Fold each of these.
Amino acid sequence: MGRNRVIDRQLVYCALEKFLEQKKMRRTPERYKVLDQAIEMTTHFKVDDLCEQLNANSFHVSKATVYNTVQLLVEAGILRRHRFAGQPSQYEIVVEQAQTNHHHLICRECGKVKEIKDAAIDNHLRQTVYRGFHPEYFTLYVYGVCSSCSRRKAKLSK
Amino acid sequence: MGRNRVIDRQLVYCALEKFLEQKKMRRTPERYKVLDQAIEMTTHFKVDDLCEQLNANSFHVSKATVYNTVQLLVEAGILRRHRFAGQPSQYEIVVEQAQTNHHHLICRECGKVKEIKDAAIDNHLRQTVYRGFHPEYFTLYVYGVCSSCSRRKAKLSK
DNA sequence: CTTAGTGCAAAGCGTTTGCATGCGA
DNA sequence: TCGCATGCAAACGCTTTGCACTAAG
């Protein structure tokens, strides 16, 4: 993944801090560790990936807590959840919205997901006003067939 | 839902016909009945909704068959599946692509989903070319807070 | 006649929850 | 100290599957 991994740790931490305070929730080591690990992940990740990594770094957290925390981070706007067909939920850190948001190309054959950028759509959506609805963010999924699958299909039909 | 319910039954039937023939699958009454019922639904619907309606119209189908059929219809490009947080999968008929596709406004508070149209985005996406990826369709989800929820929240904070 | 499709119930799997214990405030 | 957060395992809800039976081609 060529995404630039310049995530401002301080900024993300503050976001969690703020959310916890506002909701009067506790600052537990688990919550910060999970966030830490989420920042380390270089692509979309599943809850299981997080658990695995945390355990590999010898920090024990129960899966239940990871599920809870991830949910909390989504509510806090720090993570975003994607549910692609036939796979468990995937999450990703929401990096600075100042830069262009990315969208997703999803292969209907193999389920592979690729990230792309499209500043034009981004700008358009940011400027769009909906009557009575206050948009916070958006996700765009483009479904189709990826290059390797279309190549494979072409071969088979020969 | 103000969606214009001018679904060309013949056209949808043909799509299923074609798909079944191509995949060398059988034309069973269940498959056509499920499709029939899907056409009747005026909004997004869940598998359970379909079963309920079919039973109400005294056509018995098992839930397993409805699940299988709906999956088949998605593969055939006749239905589209949406997975909104905290709710079972929802489906909708894919109407003529000649007209503008619709997108979704999803309330983060109450989960309500509203359909909207945006010809500009539609056109933009149709014209976009992705290297090695062949797009077939896309879904755009705009997350935020709906009017009634933001009103409710404003009241509470007084 | 062959074998894919169906119905039923049981299994599967990601996710949530209940309860006892631990720890942040 | 008080009560929220955690860990564990059990429950949950949507979805898929296995098997015997039915019916499409």
Amino acid sequence: MIRKNNVSLKDVAAAAGVSTSLVSFVLNGKQQQYRVNKDVAEKVKRIAKELNYKPNGLAKSLRDGSSKTIGVIVSDISNQFFADIARHIESATEEKGYMALFASSDENAQTMEKQVERMLAKEVDGLILVPCNGSRNTIECLSERNVPFVLLDRYIPDLKSNYVTLDNVKAGYDATMHLIQQGYSQIAMVGYKGELVNIAGREEGYRQAMRDAGREDFISIHNVPMEDTARYCRKEVRSIVEGGADALLCATNAITIQCLRHIKDSDIRIPDDLALVGFDGGSVFDFFYAPLTYFEQPLETMARKSVDVLVEMLESGQGMMQQIEVAGKLIVRESSARKKQNK
Amino acid sequence: MIRKNNVSLKDVAAAAGVSTSLVSFVLNGKQQQYRVNKDVAEKVKRIAKELNYKPNGLAKSLRDGSSKTIGVIVSDISNQFFADIARHIESATEEKGYMALFASSDENAQTMEKQVERMLAKEVDGLILVPCNGSRNTIECLSERNVPFVLLDRYIPDLKSNYVTLDNVKAGYDATMHLIQQGYSQIAMVGYKGELVNIAGREEGYRQAMRDAGREDFISIHNVPMEDTARYCRKEVRSIVEGGADALLCATNAITIQCLRHIKDSDIRIPDDLALVGFDGGSVFDFFYAPLTYFEQPLETMARKSVDVLVEMLESGQGMMQQIEVAGKLIVRESSARKKQNK
DNA sequence: CTGTTAGCGCTTTCAC
DNA sequence: GTGAAAGCGCTAACAG
């Protein structure tokens, strides 16, 4: 029969011939505060070790109303972007004495809601969330219920809350401006349909840059549905090229990959026929024949900041709001090499 | 002040003017079993909903000695291989009514031990572990303590335990034999230093294939330390090519990437100068000028099986041992194209 | 210095 | 049909 070796405080107390409180005091380093007899303390410690006593975290959490656990809901933990974020969150939470509990929403509001409930049932102390389309309501409920949380990567417009995101407008602007400075002018952009603020920000930046460059007549935004990105990207890339674009800005990693898949199988040459700039790097883009220029998000900073903000809120008991926008930087490589004049 | 809306069973009971037991019965669908009055039941349900009552999972877990949580410790959750596994484990555990708690060991036995303790403190019902070099002792303790667990991706030699792995010997054999059949004969292999059984298995398969092909005189295994794979791969690739090899088998995804980084910057052409076969796919290898041939592990199957085995053990209370080796398949592409005769 | 006790929120046996 | 009470393991206020 399988059973875990469960020795409780009581067992230790019994074995040591003292009360459970004594054991609790000693094992929690409060022997000074409670002036526990040194010998007794030693004995308790020894016996606890002998019995291989491990405190039951559940009981402790129940007792003091804090599980020292943070729920983290991202779109998809297997997506490299979120996997990296998760790793950094894992480290940051651990350093702060918390444990991270991860789940994926699949960019689906209902799933998101379900995951939130599951985490709340586990009595997480707070949440770090990547809100998806349609999750506004869920998030608002969280506010009303006074559940501490911080939004990551995106936020909900007009909703007062903590969040940590990239400065997406600047990112979109910089990426676009870079292409313009490289000599490209008919720049198209592929993003996602929906109301995601990070995508919207990048588009906004793109628009501004095009305007500043006097190219607003070429603004060309192609938004694909988040489901079946592959098929739609293929379609869009084709029409973008046929439409005479000489450069393409892809709003996310996944979009870039799908566009690249199509391009690789076509006769479009990067950057001669089409310059390309994406978001987020990774070895994926290093091996393309023209290594990709991409806008790099400071993942670690974003992850750590979100943990910092949440933990600060948790430990101070204060309801302050922090809205943080971090800056990233463009990593320039061959996919956006200066345009050849003679073409 | 921040506080979660915590309404307990007692609150509902009070509001409904009944005892907590009644509420518990009703809310757990046991009104039939306990023949609760229909009207009362309705009222309780209504009030529970009005008060937005959510059961406290911690209390429940403490009470019935099961947290319905499974701890999962992989090498690094941000590594694509483990990120994919994690995602599948997440789905599988959820379908079975469990929650997955993830952590990374960084291939470090001490960290592994610490993570195990953290999970045990959270009272997980069982563990899914990717054992790393030197973790034998930790795993053995788990056995002795009767903690239900299953090893994933690797196992501990001579230790009777549940595990789910790839049939690594066959994988190494198939990969090597493929190269041989493509006309390559001086095949080198890069793996990891250490005692990881998955790597050892792949090597074993490689050796067998070389022997079967009458090439045992060319067997050439280059094991790099897990830390700083990048630098060592670079060194090894160089010496492998200088040593006259015409093909290379990389034992893991990470190794393949590092070797590829070096190759990309060198004048070695794939597959003309060197054929290449790796382990595990992903879009990374699709964009290399010669898309990579790789041995594909059935990640989803492995992940799901590990959950199945663990949950079966948990729910049956039986101490059966299951050792599962799943088969993968070679995905053949250009990096191992048939060798040109005239060279 | 040390033990008793109450209680965190929940389930379930047992009594009415 | 319903309620009281015990107890999961822990901590801390309060008595001694």
